[in-house]
Structures are given as structure tokens and as C-alpha cells.
Amino acid sequence: MQNVTDRTSNPFGLEPPFDRSDPDDRPAVFGYGDANADFHVIGDYPGVHGGESTGIPFTETESGHAIQDVLRAVGFASGPRDEPVLENCFLSYIHMCSLPDGDVPTDEDYATLERFFDAELRAINAHILLPVGARATDHVLREYTTQRRRFDLEMDELHATDIRGRGFLVVPIKDPVEWYDDDREAIISQLEAILDSDYRQTKGVATTVG
User: Fold this and answer.
1) Structural domain contains residue 108
2) In what residue span(s) does the Uracil-DNA glycosylase-like domain sit (predicted)?
């Protein structure tokens, strides 16, 4: 496979259209990891899943650390928590820009940044999309599958399942702050099962079925 790029952070040089961050925060938390990855983990925004200080998705917060622990368990991540080394895995947010403490993105904010997220997702061109939380899952199912209408957005039921999309296999992940019982083990087991399969055939299968 030809390398897309060797850059780890913001590999395609995206420039967010606004900066509303607090003075000590990064203006945006760009996509990070292996730009040639087969697995793309998709979070919501920095205030939820972390990175406002580090500039790296899925750091700093409870949810971020829990997702990172799953990636370490299946061999995608190693090294320090605040700057992990990723292999075959890429991390990004549907809303990359940092906001003042306590603020949440509006629907208009998400819409403004959607084209940046979409451009990066298509450039990475991963086989497996792993949206984390209800907002990211809703967006991925609406935009990259034809099956959103078939599902209520019940993350307890969608967690660690596989859904065929338009050229992708989507595996939703419930936000870790809502995990209980065996939710952590369920997503680890699902990822291990995918890794043990011929998952690189997923894109062709998903295109046919989705």
C-alpha cells in the first residue's frame, strides 16, 4: 500500500475556520495517528474527549483515557498517554475546534466543521470506522451508511456491533463514562475478532451491502 503521508498530527494541513479557545488551550485538536490506518476512531469534540492542552485526541479526559486503554489492549497504541504512538489507527473529532470551558458546539458549529472532518476521513480511507458516543455515531451512520433509519440511537444496543456502510464497516462505541459491566471487554473482543478476520475485504463487502 502506498503511504498517504508520514505526518502524525494534522497530516493534511487542515485549518479550522474559527478560534474560540481559552488562552491556554489549543485552537483545535487535529486528527492524529497513522494516516495509512485501517481503523479510524471518531470522537465528538475536545471538551468531551480531550486534547485541549495536548492537541491530541483522546487524551486528558476520563473518556479519552478509556478509549486509549482499549487501543493499547489491542495493540494500536503504545508510549506516553499524552502523546501515544499509534499503528494502524487514526484519531479525530467531528468537531475539532476547542471552545471556552463549559461551552458546547452548536448545530451550526458542527455543520461548519463537517467538511473538514469529511475531507480527512476520506483521505485516511480506513476500512473500519469507530465512532465514540451518540453524536459521533449518529453522524457517521447518517453520512457514511444508508442504514441510520433502521436504528434508534440506543448506544447500549449499538455498542460493539458491526454495521455495514458505504465502503466502511462501522463499529459504534458507547461513551466510556457510560460503560458498565462488560462494555470495555465487549469492544476489545470485537476489535480482536475483526483483527483476526480478513477485514481488508470489508470495503468491497460494505460497498455491495450498504
Assistant:
1) yes
2) 30-156
Burial class (CB in 10 A: 0-12, 13-18, 19+), 171: buried
Encode pLDDT of 89-121 as tens digits. Answer: 999 999 999 999 989 999 999 999 999 999 999
> What's the domain range around 56?
32-76+87-209
Tell me the H-state helices in the chain. Answer: 46-49, 62-73, 107-124, 134-144, 155-158, 183-196, 202-209
Mean pLDDT of 184-201: 91
Strand partners, 42: 92, 131
pLDDT in tens, 66-86: 999 999 999 999 999 999 999
In the chain, the amino acid numbered 27 is P
Helix (H, G, I), strand (E, B) or coil at 178: helix
